[in-house]
Amino acid sequence: MAAYYVGELVSLMFMAIALGMDAFSVSLGLGMQKIRLKRIALIGIIIGFFHMLMPFIGILLGQAISTQIGEYTVLAGGLLLFGIGAQMVFSAFNHEAPQLAQPAGIGLLFFALSVSLDSFSVGLSLGLSDVRTVVTLLMFGTASMILTWAGLIFGRKVHGFLGVYSEILGGSILCGFGLHVLFG
After folding, report:
1. Considering the entire predicted model, what is its pTM?
2. Cβ contacts of residue 83 below 8 Å, gap of 6+?
3. What is the rounded distance in angstroms from the CA atom of residue 46 to the CA atom of residue 118?
4. Residue 41 and residue 146: Cα distance in Å, rounded?
5. Counting runs of H as helices and runs of E as strands, what totals does the chain give?
6. Which one of 1.10.287, 3.30.720, 1.10.1200, 1.20.1250 gives the CATH number of domain 2-183?
7. How many CB atoms lie within 10 A of CB 29?
């Protein structure tokens, strides 16, 4: 029984890191703007909050849907995770770099919302599979906050060659979890 819980925590940890990789890759580019450390701390906290809020909404919606679709919930959850991961991988190859918003005021909120939208979809699929909500949300928020801080600080030092690779890694991990849910 303890091995089951440890396995579930490890799976959630890897999923949290995979979701945070999107914030990490975008933060690398944002960090090249030489943002002050105080602002970096605030950006990480806001993104961490959104990475808890969006999956929470998704989990609630997924639990409501799961009562409607019954036995198809595992299939839907696995396909959704795989689809999100595949979208992350394919978007990494889109070479048209979007214009980054300024990390202040409403721009910071839109920035946090944009990098946490994929966590809504993951929350939706997790809501279909009856996951431990509080632990999941804390792991998602903490991982994305730390990875955002790392991306912003690392972006101050290095110029953007890791951005695409981290998004590919995150998408690959989500694809793997989706396949594991479907066939595991």
Report:
1. 0.71
2. 121, 178
3. 16
4. 10
5. 6, 0
6. 1.20.1250
7. 17
The identity of residue 119, as a single letter, is S
**How far apart, in whole angstroms, are the C-alpha atoms of residue 119 and residue 41?**
21
Judge whether 148 and 44 are in contact, CB under 8 Å: yes
Please classify residue 137 by burial: count the beta carbons closer than 10 Å to its beta carbon, then call 0-12 exposed, 13-18 middle and 19+ buried: buried
Q: What pLDDT, in 10s, does the model give residues 113-169?
A: 877 877 887 887 777 776 778 888 999 999 999 999 998 898 777 654 555 666 676
Judged by DSSP in three states, 129 sits in coil
Query: For residue range 83-105, what is the model confidence (pLDDT) as tens digits?
Result: 777 877 787 777 554 544 456 78
